[in-house]
Amino acid sequence: FTGAVNNFGSDYLNTAGFAPIGLPLAWAIKLSHVACAMLLILNRYIRLAAIVTIPVLVAGIIMIHAAEGWFVVGAGRNGAEFNVLLISVLVYLAMINRRGEMVKFN
Questions:
Q1: How many CB atoms lie within 10 A of CB 53?
Q2: 3-state secondary structure 57-103
Q3: Is the pLDDT of residue 74 over 70?
Q4: Which residue has the higher pLDDT, 26 or 74?
Q5: In the chain, pLDDT over 70 holds for what percent of residues?
Q6: End-to-end CA distance of the chain, in Å?
Q7: CB–CB of 64/40 below 8 Å?
């Protein structure tokens, strides 16, 4: 609603060397986040959601968050630790999810 996806695509990705596909790439990233979040909420296709999301998060760390440092709380902003936490959780969920079964927590 704020135009952040459009700005990220046209302003950042296009100038980072992804022109002319910066805007479609930004929307693909956003839509993949939404779709994978829905899969995780529905407890379906957990490995697929992890396989799609982890490379996006790693690319985000490399392109954006690493330059800002580690912490996003306090005086820092835009750090990498939340992405590392998400990657860790997705790896864990993908590892315990066998052949598309639902993840069961005891």
A1: 22
A2: HHHHHHHHHHHHCCCCCCCCCCCCHHHHHHHHHHHHHHHHCCCCCCC
A3: no
A4: 26
A5: 86
A6: 39
A7: no
Residue written as token pair 């790693």: 58
Q: 80 and 70 in contact (C-beta within 8 Å)?
A: yes
Please report, to the nearest 10 degrees, the dihedral formed by the alpha carbons of residues 95, 61, 15, 32 taken in order.
30
pTM of the model: 0.82
Structure tokens given for 42 = 């529905």
Q: Please list, residue by residue across 57-92, b when 16 or more beta carbons sit within 10 angstroms of its beta carbon and e when fewer do.
A: beebbeebbeeeeeeeeeeeeebbebbeebbeebee
* pLDDT mean across residues, the chain: 87
The residue among 85, 59, 63 whose CA lies nearest residue 72 is 85
Do 60 and 47 meet the contact criterion of CB atoms below 8 Å apart?
no
Average pLDDT of the residues in 64-74:
75
Spatial CA neighbour of 28 closest among 9, 49, 3, 1: 9
